[in-house]
Amino acid sequence: MKLQHYLGGLEGLDSEPLNFEKQIFVEPWETRIFGIHVAMMGLSQHLSDTPLQYPLKSIPTTFKSTWTWADLRKGAEAMNPFDYFRFRYYEKWLGGISGFFMQEGYITEEQLDARTAVYLEKPDAPLPSVSEPTIDEQIVDYLRRGDPAIREVDYQPKFSVGQKIEVKDVLSTDHTRLPGYLRNRTGSIEKVYEGAYAYLCSTGPDGLGEPMYVYSVKFDPKNIWGDMAEGNSWVYADLFEVYVEAAK
After folding, report:
1. Alpha-carbon distances, residue 208 vs 11, 86, 135, 152, 244 (angstroms)
2. Rounded Cα gap, residues 202 and 71, in angstroms
């Protein structure tokens, strides 16, 4: 993630007390935006190309795009960092999903503004309600079976248990799965996970997209935080193969 989305390992962030929200949903509208996101994932067109081969072509939906957790994260990470900290969790979801629908041409900014004005004036106005059993069945089937990430590849892992590696400092633009505080740090391979893992979408210059092996990497905290590190401890991180290279 970019800096504002991965604060782990950074010091000096505890000047203000943290407020951990214990409720999953605080406002009623948050349940609806969560449901919209789930429906978009269940109708994502990439599902027809997964090993489970969902029958998306036969589903009577006008949603013809690919939408995954990674696409949701892209929307949040595209925000101005100050806005990111200003908005609540599901407000970020709402902004990302709204922007996606405009980007994909499902709705224009003018249409969105007009509909928003209606509900601002009449908050109790009824919401659109459409029932399509085939779509509902597809979404429920997706929730039950999911989208397995493991894929078969015709090559072996580049690294083995015990091997020393160095974490790359790859360019990240839209989205990355590499923690910032591990960049340029050295560690050792603790475990090679079985099978290759396909990430949800291409993340651009940092290299994720095609299936690849994932490693559990062990780091000495002193190599990350120096004298501020606590003793008798280790840091473990699961990293995609594209993020590591043999230690120099």
Report:
1. 29, 29, 31, 16, 12
2. 10
Do 52 and 117 fall within a single domain?
yes
Phi, psi of 21 (to 5 degrees): -70, 120
Distance CA 176, CA 202 (A): 10
Q: Phi-psi bin for 105: left (phi > 0), alpha (psi -120 to 50), beta?
A: left
Per-residue pLDDT reduced to its tens digit, 123-146: 899 988 888 999 999 999 999 999
Q: Which residues contact 238 (CB under 8 A, 6 or more apart)?
A: 193, 214, 215, 216, 217
Strands 214-219 and 164-167: unpaired
Place of tokens 């509208």: 29
Specify whether 144 is located in the same domain as 159. Answer: no
- Residues 100-113 have a mean pLDDT of 96
**End position of a domain, from candidates 126, 148, 170:** 148
Question: Do residues 31 and 137 share a domain?
Answer: yes
What confidence category does residue 10 fall into, taking pLDDT thresholds of 50, 70 and 90?
A: low
- Do 18 and 124 lie in one domain? The reply is yes
Per residue in 141-169, pLDDT (tens digit) is 999 999 888 888 999 999 999 999 999 99
Q: What is the pLDDT of residue 18?
A: 64
Q: Does residue 239 surpass a pLDDT of 90?
A: yes
Which of residues 62 and 172 earns the better pLDDT score?
62
Of the candidates 190, 123, 134, the residue with the CA atom closest to the CA atom of residue 162: 190
Can you say how many angstroms the Cα of residue 93 is from the centroid of all Cα atoms in its chain? 12
